[in-house]
Write a structure and sequence with these properties.
The chain has ten helices and no strands. By secondary structure, it is mainly α. It has a single domain, classed as Hypothetical protein af1432 (Orthogonal Bundle). Helix 2 packs antiparallel against helix 3, helix 8 runs parallel beside helix 10 and helix 9 runs antiparallel to helix 10. The longest helix is centred in the middle third of the chain and has 25 residues. The chain is globular. It starts with a helix and ends in a 5-residue tail after the last helix.
Length: 196
């Protein structure tokens, strides 16, 4: 597969929308996460629409709600817009309570299509990689950056996501997510740093 100018345009849009955003607790530009998720999608066989939706998967949730979704639909078409919308747990501001949003999103994944699950799992794999890396460096000082769920909520959510993807796929990423979550849980249970 060869990526077209549509992918270039999506990258420009993603960078523009998230330009002022940083990863939780770091100075890392948010677009780095979006690139990582899109890369994982492509590595696992996703098509161009799915890779574009991966670049834009947080745009509706974090950068403008329905107006942003309409712009995505106009520029990239209904399939990309539908995937982005399916990967968003809320476009409300202020957002509904954290636990309820996450429970609803988990229930939604039970009926989501393969492309939605691929993007969502790639997102969680990249997040879990970052959590593990930072946990090995910071220990328990990591958790205050997760204001919504904190330590216990985050551990619950990532284990629940690993279980959903373990049952429904995508298989390759689901295996990695489960391994990452297991390592994070081992650290959280006081097992100390786990050898790389």
């Amino acid at each position: 597969m060869e990526l077209s100018e549509r992918f270039d345009q999506a990258l420009v849009m993603a960078n523009h929308l998230h330009r002022q955003q940083r990863r939780k607790g770091t100075g890392t530009p948010y677009v780095g996460h979006l690139l990582a998720v899109s890369s994982l999608v492509l590595e696992c066989g996703g098509d161009e629409d799915t890779a574009i939706a991966a670049l834009l998967h947080d745009a509706v949730e974090d950068q403008g709600g329905q107006a942003t979704l309409a712009a995505i639909r106009e520029q990239f078409g209904p399939r990309v817009a539908d995937l982005v919308e399916a990967c968003s747990d809320s476009d409300d501001h202020p957002k509904p309570p954290w636990r309820g949003r996450k429970e609803a999103y988990l229930a939604h994944l039970e009926h989501a299509d393969e492309a939605t699950r691929l993007i969502s799992c790639a997102d969680k794999v990249h997040n879990a990689r970052c959590i593990l890396r930072d946990y090995l460096e910071l220990g328990e000082e990591l958790w205050p950056r997760f204001r919504g769920g904190g330590r216990e909520g985050s551990l619950w959510y990532y284990r629940a996501m690993a279980e959903v993807f373990g049952r429904l796929g995508p298989r390759r990423l689901a295996v990695e997510l489960d391994e990452l979550v297991t390592r994070i849980e081992g650290l959280a249970d006081g097992g100390g740093p786990v050898a790389e």
